[in-house]
Fold this sequence. Notes:
This protein is an alpha/beta fold. The protein has 3 domains: about 5-80, Arc Repressor Mutant, subunit A (Orthogonal Bundle); about 80-195 and about 380-400, Nucleotidyltransferase, domain 5; about 210-375, Nucleotidyltransferase, domain 5, CATH 3.30.420. The chain has 14 helices and 15 strands. It has helices at about 5, 15-25, 30-40, 40-55, 120-135, 175-180, 190-200, 265-280, 285-290, 295-305, 310-335, 350-360, 365-370, 380-400; strands spanning about 30, 60-65, 75, 85-90, 95-100, 105-115, 145-150, 155, 160, 185-190, 210-215, 220-225, 230, 335-340, 370-375. Helix 7 (about 190-200) packs across helix 14 (about 380-400) and helix 10 packs across helix 11 (about 310-335). The longest helix is centred in the last third of the chain and has 25 residues, at about 310-335. It is globular. The model has no long low-confidence stretch (mean pLDDT about 90).
Amino acid sequence: METLLNNINGRYAAEKKTILALCSSHESYSIQDLARELGTSIPKVTRIVAEMIQEGFLVDTGKMESATGRRPSLYGLNPAAGSFVGIDVNRDSLMVAVTNFSGRVTRMLEDIPFVLRNTEDSVADFCRCVQEKLSEAGVDKSLIRGYGVNLTGRVNHRTGYSYSYFLGEEKPIAQLLSAGFGHHVVVENDSRAMAYGEYMSSFPGSEGNFLFLNVGWGLGMGMVMDGKLYYGKSGFSGEIGHFPLLDNNCVCQCGKVGCLETGASGSALHRIVLEKLSDGRSSLLSPLFKEGKEISLGNILDAVEREDVLCIECVEQVGATLGRAVAGLINVFNPDMVVIGGRLSVTERYLMPPLRGAVNRLSLNLVNSDTLIKVSRLGKTAGAIGASLLSKNLLLSEIA
């Protein structure tokens, strides 16, 4: 544990650790609220809070709103007590977010070119690359308390293993990353981290139910249930992309047929566009196709932005398929909110109308009337922000 956190000792060590864990999830507490949470007296909590302010952990964040009487002071984490770094690993680039001790974003480093491969050397290069970029951005690395790293596919944050970057039973990737950064590292599935980042920006301190669909090249989901990330028995929940919903005879990357991902993802959009171009349909991408040049998902999204009719039609098809899945999720979970994020969320104008139409047709009215469906407000930064916040909250929770 880093030096600052090692200072948590003495006669009130247990209470201090609990207060840090509480404040990591909720922005601020009054003395009365902390006394209630700790099950102890107000005078004792007053002494503890005073010590934590002197030690640099807490600050006075203002007064609680009150209709009558004296307004009590609120206390929260001291932003200057340290920082956390979140790294979102994409197919060919990195997104890095730095947050202070209270969870506010202080730096955002976007679209850093890097391809992480399944080797120890690549992991070492990854750590060096991030460290160099942090230095170039003027981040004080002496204040960093922990790192969070998002990876695609099946990730178990408790064991530190990723089965997309599996380096052997004896070497979980979190161990190699911790050695490379010289700090505690939390590895997490990208969709869950995105869900957490988005949730904390929309419902800080609440205990709502929230679904986040990461519509990128693949399709993943993060779930927040009663204010907490839901992992499932083995830590691999959220594989909505591999729900056997479709009868399209398309083989998924997992090897099975009919997975939702084969009809509602960036890879599905890419395949559908190429199929229509093969059938002779006209598009802004037709010259590239006829010349035999590679057409990327980025090319397709650019064509949508330029109002290409064929590509818009394909996005709408993906939206309708995704809407069928969202309707089912609403019927099962009755969530407060469903957020659509990931790379395809930039096509909101064309993706969301057929999605909402399918939800209205296929979900139960009494259920969906209470659910808000929206596009991610954090956009492509959601994963990096979520990784940083998870690193902070898991670290502070583990010491409690």
